[in-house]
Amino acid sequence: MITETPAWKIDIEVHPEGWRFPAGVTWLAGWIWSPQNRIVSDLRAWVDGRCFFANWGLPKPGLDEVYLKRPGPPFLGFTLPLAPHAGATLLRLEVRDQTNVWQEIFRTGITVDSAAGTAPPVKPLPDLLPGLINPLLRLQQRRPAVPLAALADEMISGAIAEPRNVLPGPPFFGALEAPRDIGWVRYGRVSITGWLAHRERRIKRITGVVDPLHVGSLLYGLPRTDINGEFSDLAGRESSAFVGHLDLPADCAVPVLLKLFAELDNGEQHLVFAQRFTPRILAGAETSLPSRSLRTFLRGAGALRASAMRHGLPATGWRDLWPALKTAWQNFAAEAPAPVKATRLASARLPARRPDQPLRVLVVTHNLNFEGAPWFIFELARFLSRQAGITVQVVSPQDGPMRATFASAGMPVTLVDLGSALAAATPEEFSARLDAAVAALPWNGTDLVIANTMVAFWAIRAAHARMLPSLFYIHESSPVRRFFKKDIAPEVLPLIEDAFRLATRVVFTADSSRRIFNDLGARGNFVLLPSWVDAGRIDAFAAAHAAADLRRKHGLDPDALLVINIGSVCERKGQHIFIQALDLLRRELPVLWPGRKIQFLMVGARPGLFLETLRDEVARLGLEELAVFLPETGEVFDFYRLADVFVCTSFEESFPRVILESAVFRRHIVTTDVNGISEMIAPTDAWLIPPGDRYRLADALKQAITARLNGDHARPERARAAVLRKYHEANSLPQHLQLARGVAEIRV
């Protein structure tokens, strides 16, 4: 039966005859399509006052092609297992689109067998309130134009809705281990793990959908040795594990629906898991809570209470809500930022010791990989070591290829094992283990400690315990508690926050990053100093190395236009969005530039799960001729020089050196506009796009490629001029030297 509205067409192909429901579960199934090109973002049914979530966005072979003119996504199908209660009289279906508005698209009267039983009790508001107050206030921050009452209705209806999760049935066997009720999200991607096997056939691939417009693939066939018991005779169980990540669309409906599909060796595709979950951000952009305010909190609590009454939840007076309100306030106060106050920045100009006085510096870097932060501290340490009277020693808890780089510049490196300290469960354990781990470091021969990145917080604590002045360079743009949530015990997190207060000076090169840590700067010890770029070295390199020669050196096509994404291949750097943009572009490239070969390089590949999933995605999409992975390298200047277009797809950056260097190399730059990047360059200097937006990225790439092929170098020239004006090392590095000399004179 097809029902149409101006915006939607729905066909409920499977339903009980005459809408007479027997006792137990009855399946509804069908499809939904929008002639106005709206995208389904959620689907639910109301049976009188009960809410049931549907499993939507399922493939409908044949029908998808008719209405979408392609196989999808988005997919048109849906299923909905219902168990109406005795006495129910009305069924309504509501759909939600990308504007976050629910719209009723179908209703009918129903009858239910009296043997069906009564409606189950709903959770009372005191049980719901502590978990809803923070999401509600975040939602209000994201959608300030929407009335608070409407947002509260969204939260309450979602909390009382009954998810209709799907588990595999014979001949499939398996388990979805993550996500369950909570899904952990890093840089816009939710982590997926579990196992799946088929009794008779081979599973070729497992794909998944969270974003209705994108199908992602998981790594399948990984070893699994713990599947025994009733599954001990199941063929293929030893290699039945799957793992991976799927994109989470911005501002998605909560709880989010995850669907996993298994493709068999005979070409069949089956829905094997459907799971509703609530996202929890571990890393990446997250809408902040409003400033800590009792008035704001009570407005949110009142809106939820009023919504609960509208939805028929048991009436709850304020007195009965008091215990739940106390818990909810604790949750809110723990995460909400303190009211914004103007942070008093410290002066970077301090009375300093004479240039001929000895200065012994201990530099602590969080690792020795070929990454932006270690290169930053290497260049600062090298500059300091070249000054008369200054000696530099380096400490790192992790070894890596840059150990030789420091050593060749005359700066010896000491490795220290911090594993036990960082695994401590209490502040007392951490302090004792840290003292033991760093006891052998040359503290008595040190005048100043420089700790690089928030991960090196332990060096600030160790320096303070020995009454040594310190500089704490911060490159992160994520709050302490979120950044370390999965790695450090909650009881130890305050010690990291204290490091910001204990450091003699905390140095930021991006004001956007400084503002994230504003509430830790009450001591007035924050300093904002410009970063730097070695323009002379870059120009000398460009003059001495022809792009054609470097292409031959690295085995790259001498005639191809090369679009290069430089940065460690990891979730934060967003190479998965780069690949998705290529998938959007691949059909346009031959039309826009017939006969012109264009390749897209990702420089910075490191072994690991993320790289494996990217390679699998490239193979699944058939992008092997377009997308090329190259390993991490210390010869990064080669790739700036041989590139035609430079791309940065990061979700989070404080002040990335790759933007500075690519600008000085006069590259056409396409970059996400995150954190300190807009402090470096303007929209007239490069193509700036939001993070995680594959459509905007694809469009910006087309514009940059067009400009490059047309010989339009206006943006690259403006970018170079802006960067040299603000960040030339001849101006910046002396300011950092002056600060180091001045801080070394401060008594702790």
Describe the structure in your own words:
This protein has 748 residues and is an alpha/beta fold. It folds into 4 domains: 2-116, Immunoglobulin-like (Sandwich), CATH 2.60.40.10; 121-339, Immunoglobulin-like (Sandwich); 359-532 and 735-744, 3-Layer(aba) Sandwich (Rossmann fold); 535-727, Glycogen Phosphorylase B (Rossmann fold). Strand 31 (668-672), helix 21 and strand 32 form a beta-alpha-beta unit. Helix 10 crosses helix 12 (493-502), helix 16 (575-585) packs parallel to helix 18 (609-621) and helix 16 packs across helix 22. The chain is globular and about 95 Å long. It starts with a strand and ends with a helix. The mean pLDDT is 91.
Can you summarize this structure?
This protein is α/β, with parallel strands linked by helices and 748 residues long.
List its salient traits.
748 residues, 24 helices, Immunoglobulin-like, 4 domains, Rossmann fold, globular
Spatial order of the strands forming the largest sheet:
13-14-17-16-15-18-19
Number of domains: 4
Shape: globular
Structural class label: alpha/beta
Mean pLDDT: 91
CATH class of the largest domain: Mainly Beta
| C-alpha-based Rg, rounded | 29 Å
Q: How many beta-strand elements?
A: 32
Task: Return the CATH topology of the largest domain.
Answer: Immunoglobulin-like
Biggest sheet overview: 7 strands, mixed, barrel
Topology:
Elements: E1 2-4, E2 9-14, E3 20-21, E4 26-33, E5 42-47, E6 50-53, E7 55-58, H1 63-68, E8 77-82, E9 90-96, E10 102-109, E11 111-112, H2 125-142, H3 148-160, E12 172-178, E13 182-186, E14 189-198, E15 203-209, E16 216-222, E17 241-247, E18 256-264, E19 269-283, H4 294-310, H5 318-335, E20 359-365, H6 372-385, E21 390-396, H7 402-408, E22 413-415, H8 419-422, H9 427-438, E23 448-452, H10 457-465, E24 470-474, H11 480-483, H12 493-502, E25 505-508, H13 511-516, E26 526-528, H14 535-544, H15 547-553, E27 561-566, H16 575-585, H17 589-592, E28 598-605, H18 609-621, E29 627-631, H19 636-642, E30 645-648, H20 657-664, E31 668-672, H21 677-680, E32 687-689, H22 694-709, H23 714-727, H24 729-744
Parallel strand pairs: 3-11, 13-19, 20-21, 20-23, 21-22, 23-24, 24-25, 25-26, 27-28, 27-30, 28-29, 30-31, 31-32
Antiparallel strand pairs: 1-2, 2-4, 4-8, 5-6, 5-9, 7-8, 9-10, 12-14, 13-14, 14-17, 15-16, 15-18, 16-17, 18-19
